[in-house]
UniProtKB/TrEMBL annotation:
<feature type="transmembrane region" description="Helical">
    <location>
        <begin position="35"/>
        <end position="59"/>
    </location>
</feature>
<comment type="similarity">
    <text>Belongs to the plant tobamovirus multiplication TOM1 protein family.</text>
</comment>
<feature type="domain" description="THH1/TOM1/TOM3">
    <location>
        <begin position="18"/>
        <end position="289"/>
    </location>
</feature>
<keyword id="KW-0472">Membrane</keyword>
<protein>
    <recommendedName>
        <fullName>THH1/TOM1/TOM3 domain-containing protein</fullName>
    </recommendedName>
</protein>
<feature type="transmembrane region" description="Helical">
    <location>
        <begin position="255"/>
        <end position="273"/>
    </location>
</feature>
<feature type="transmembrane region" description="Helical">
    <location>
        <begin position="141"/>
        <end position="163"/>
    </location>
</feature>
<feature type="transmembrane region" description="Helical">
    <location>
        <begin position="71"/>
        <end position="90"/>
    </location>
</feature>
<feature type="transmembrane region" description="Helical">
    <location>
        <begin position="175"/>
        <end position="197"/>
    </location>
</feature>
<keyword id="KW-0812">Transmembrane</keyword>
<feature type="transmembrane region" description="Helical">
    <location>
        <begin position="110"/>
        <end position="129"/>
    </location>
</feature>
<keyword id="KW-0926">Vacuole</keyword>
<dbReference type="InterPro" id="IPR040226">
    <property type="entry name" value="THH1/TOM1/TOM3"/>
</dbReference>
<keyword id="KW-1133">Transmembrane helix</keyword>
<dbReference type="Pfam" id="PF06454">
    <property type="entry name" value="THH1_TOM1-3_dom"/>
</dbReference>
<dbReference type="GO" id="GO:0005774">
    <property type="term" value="C:vacuolar membrane"/>
</dbReference>
<feature type="transmembrane region" description="Helical">
    <location>
        <begin position="218"/>
        <end position="239"/>
    </location>
</feature>
């Protein structure tokens, strides 16, 4: 019995030390700045990769305009660049007034991130329906309508909060983001899954088919998990002060969250979709390869 008591005391001491470690880092101004600057550097790196890829695509096929592939890489550059800029000046952002300005600077890149990856869902939906000889005329208008509705609702809530700060509306804004993220996750599961199954049934065995199958499977899995984790975390963020991502004294939580839902997924997707389009005259150009 005495042995059990000693073991419990050791476990309790270790848990206390772990709790102190977490608390010490979160409350340290030095560690806050270090972690936010690490996030800024990582976002800057991803933004640079997206920009380089955009330039390479433009040099490869300069005769084409703003294809889906180019827009996707440009939005990746924009989202990660803005997010990195915000984390460079994270402490200054926290001191901005009115407080709604802080929410706009922290949340606008999340909206743009949704639009960026919704482009992939649109692209896959077009491929899927074209392969089944179904009209795709309504897909792009639907894409723009969905984005317009999402931005209108969010901007409307921001304007109300600018006029009068209502704590309940802040919670609703975070829940709305969670709902948008869940919608995106289901979009990837629906159209990425459909396209994956369709490619599996494709009769021709070739290296190109296998690579496309792997590409769709990997990107679907990564993006589905990314938006699902974002949805879950935004729900905690809305209702649990200990999971608040909008404060300076939760840098470790910020590091884990943004690594999982933006930096790592973006890096992996950019790597998977790194293939350049073929030069004109060799084969027909496909927007995203």
């Amino acid at each position: 019995m005495e042995g059990y008591g000693a073991d419990e005391a050791v476990i309790a001491l270790k848990l206390k030390d772990a709790s102190n470690w977490w608390h010490d880092i979160n409350e340290s101004t030095l560690w806050q700045d270090r972690i936010f600057h690490i996030l800024a550097a990582l976002y800057g790196l991803v933004a640079a990769v997206a920009l380089v890829q955009l330039i390479r695509i433009q040099l490869r096929v300069p005769e084409y305009g703003w294809t889906t592939q180019k827009v996707f890489h440009f939005l990746n550059f924009l989202v990660n660049g803005v997010r990195g800029f915000v984390f460079v000046f994270r402490r200054d952002v926290q001191n901005l007034h009115p407080e709604i300005v802080q929410h706009i600077l922290l949340d606008m890149p999340s909206l743009a991130f949704f639009t960026t990856y919704a482009l992939l869902v649109l692209f896959w939906a077009e491929i899927y329906y074209q392969a089944r000889a179904v009209s795709t005329d309504g897909l792009r208008p639907s894409f723009f309508t969905i984005n317009a509705v999402v931005y209108t609702i969010q901007i409307g809530m921001w304007l109300i909060l600018w006029w009068k700060y209502i704590p309940v509306l802040v919670v609703l804004s975070k829940v709305f983001f969670a709902g948008v993220s869940l919608f995106a996750a289901l979009g990837f599961l629906l159209y990425g899954g459909r396209l994956f199954l369709m490619l599996q049934r494709f009769p021709v065995e070739s290296k190109g088919r296998r690579k496309k199958l792997q590409e769709v499977g990997y990107v679907t899995t990564i993006c589905f998990l990314c938006f699902l984790v974002r949805c879950i975390m935004m729900c905690f963020n809305a209702f649990d002060k200990a999971a608040d991502l909008d404060v300076l004294n939760h840098p470790v939580l910020n590091l884990i969250y943004y690594l999982l839902v933006e930096i790592l997924p973006s890096s992996l997707v950019l790597f998977i979709l790194r293939k350049l389009p073929p030069k004109r005259g060799i084969t027909q150009y496909h927007p995203i390869r």
